[in-house]
Amino acid sequence: MAAKTADVGLEERWRDILSLHARTMCEIDRVLHPHGLGASDFEVLDILVTAAPREGEQCRVQNLVGRVHLSQSALSRLIGRLEKDGLLERSVCAEDRRGVYVTLTPKGRDLHAEVLPLQREALARTLGG
Q: Which of 76-97 are b and which e, b meaning 16 or more Cβ less than 10 Å from the residue's Cβ?
């Protein structure tokens, strides 16, 4: 009986986490939509700003895979869309032709800086910070 009660508690906690995540992602999507971004788009830009803080610095796509909660194919499509929108550029690694680098463009850095306060406010609203 105690194990069953513990399982129920774990399930409830898990569902609470999923619910909070869904509400947070929806709120971020809502506030960023007028700027042409979604929550996952912003997450990639935000990680790139952190991983490559100086203009022109590159980040290997493989380094994004574990940090963005998307499949590798979904991440590739998102990167393609961000590149099409002029927010980042892709290049092939000279040492390892299988490796791909991404670099934020000035337009991508500017958009990130513009929407960062909106994303942080959305986090504060949904996470109570």
A: eebbeebbeeebbeeeeeeeee
Segment 74-120, tens digit of pLDDT = 999 999 999 999 999 999 877 776 788 999 999 999 999 999 999 99
Please say whether the dihedral angle defined by the alpha carbons of residues 67, 54, 86 and 22, taken in this order, is positive or negative. positive
Q: How many CB atoms lie within 10 A of CB 105?
A: 17
Judge contact between 90 and 102, C-beta under 8 A.
Answer: yes
Q: How far apart are the C-alpha atoms of 82 and 70, rounded to whole Å?
A: 15
- The whole-model pTM stands at 0.85
**The tokens of 124 are what?**
């504060």
CB 37 within 8 A of CB 111: yes
Tokens 């788009």 sit on residue: 41
- Among the listed residues 58, 44, 129, 121, the one whose alpha carbon sits nearest the alpha carbon of residue 91: 58
Residue reference for tokens 């803080």: 53
